[in-house]
Amino acid sequence: MLVIGVFGESKTTQLLIASQVVLSMQLGFAVWPLMRFTDERAKMGEFANRLWLKILGWATAAIIIVLNVKLLFDTFMPDAFLKEFYRLLHLPPPT
């Protein structure tokens, strides 16, 4: 409420998007140790992750981390560098 009072109602959408980006960046740091902890049979006993859940969990963690790195890359790299980089990969540059 304080932020809305300071910046006005027109900035609430931008604030919501920014908060979701911050939460997305933190998600990789939460999933990684959770997977490490629940994979250890010594700590979890019979409740340790089975192989199919390990594969699914680590694949999901990797996707989250890779997409966050891409978001940071696309956000902070200069446009000229991004255009050239994506051109070399034969991909359309982000808009």
Secondary-structure map with pairings?
Layout: H1 2-7, H2 12-39, H3 41-44, H4 51-76, H5 79-88
Helix pairs in contact: 2-4
Give an overview in words.
- There is one protein chain.
- The protein has helices at 2-7, 12-39, 41-44, 51-76, 79-88.
- It is an all-alpha fold and 95 residues long.
- The two termini are 32 Å apart.
- Helices cover 78% and strands 0% of the residues.
- Helix 2 runs antiparallel to helix 4.
Radius of gyration: 19 Å
Q: Which spans have pLDDT < 50 for at least 5 consecutive residues?
A: none
Number of strands: 0
Q: Which sheet architecture does the biggest sheet show?
A: none
Helix content: over 70%
Characterize the overall form: flat
User: Count of DSSP helices?
Assistant: 5
Q: How would you summarize what this structure contains?
A:
This protein is mainly alpha-helical and 95 residues long. The chain has helices at 2-7, 12-39, 41-44, 51-76, 79-88. It contains five helices and no strands.
List keywords for this structure.
about 100 residues, mainly alpha, 5 helices, about 80% helix
